Amino acid sequence: MEKERRVDAQALLELVSRVFERCGMAEQDAGLLADTLVDADLGGVHSHGVMRVPEYVKKLTVDGVDAKGVPSVVRDSGACLVVDGGNTMGQIGAHFAMAEVIRRAKDYGIAAAGIRGSNHCGAMGYYARMALEHDMIGIATTNALPTMAPWGGAERILGINPLGVAVPAGAEWPIVFDAAFSGSSHGKIRIYHQKGLALPEGWAMDREGQPTTDPEAAIDGLLMPIGAFKGVSLALIMGILSSMLSGASYGTELGNMEDGPEAGEDGHFVAAIRISAFEEPGRFKERVDRAIRQIHDCRRAPGVDQLFAPGEPEALRREAYGRDGIPLNDVTLGDMKKTAEAMAVDTESYDWL
């Protein structure tokens, strides 16, 4: 039976930051990269959490990602810009770009950036949420390695290309949508594979395009789109926004699941909308609160105890896990210990490893 241990978020952040510093990253960049992973685990999104530390270390030390890369603006049109990520981890370029569009949205009302020369950037909600404290709506999307087929196809040519949107509220938790256009992410399927569990129906297909609940067949096969042809259409659009506006690679140009991605070929797209350019922010947030409370008060289907707006379950978990520790399984912790020690990071003081 798999075991889980509760891990203090700050201690976890410290260890992961030290590992990334050992890869050659500047202290600030290592801390940011670690924070994106720990933040995902705090929200219970473990597919984008510290289970990815070994994968990221390999990217930074073996697979051609530049640990010392520096993002820069390479095309500037005021409210619109193109950022080159400098072939560092995507989190560094996406954070740089989102901070820049927030700054510009203060002047222009709306600002957007396409990002090229980048790599895997983690959960999109992290960047969308950056806009909330500025009374802005944040939007972030990215391309991804092909893991889906077009509707009716049986060949990986389309990424799941997730979208993150964050909308400020008043007294309620902000609305935060962060999801790919597949039934699940590849990372979540890896979690089920780790645990030896069958997948929920509607998550994946085998390599012949037939539905499967076997995680091993799913890893070798195809992710299933949400909403049939609608899901693949939305994934196509997010892929175009993430790559073709900035000149980043698209679809099969990125690489493949067997051989991995080509370093520095990923692209992303981020945007910020200043609410006060359209509406008085207090009134806007009050109306968002009412919309959320309508969800809470909606008549529930049999067997349902509570209704949530998008982002509320993650926000509640952040509170609970921040207080009680993040539950991490032995596989994730064992892999992290092995990786940290391989990078000459002393793990003796981390008694949860």
**What's the gyration radius in Å?**
20 Å
CATH class of the largest domain equals: Alpha Beta
Strand content: 15-25%
Kindly report the name of the CATH homologous superfamily of the largest domain.
Malate/L-lactate/L-sulpholactate dehydrogenase, NADPH binding domain
Q: What is the CATH architecture annotation of the largest domain?
A: 2-Layer Sandwich
Number of contiguous helices:
11
**Euclidean distance between termini CA atoms:** 18 Å
Anisotropy-based shape: globular
Order of helices and strands: EHHHEEHEHEEEHEEHEHEEEHHEH
Poorly predicted regions = none
CATH fold-level label of the largest domain: Ribosomal Protein S8, Chain: A, domain 1
Number of strands: 14
User: Percent helix among the residues?
Assistant: 25-40%
Main structural class: alpha+beta
What is the mean pLDDT? 95
Query: What is the topology, as strand order, of the major beta sheet?
Result: 2-3-4-13-5-6-7
Number of domains: 2
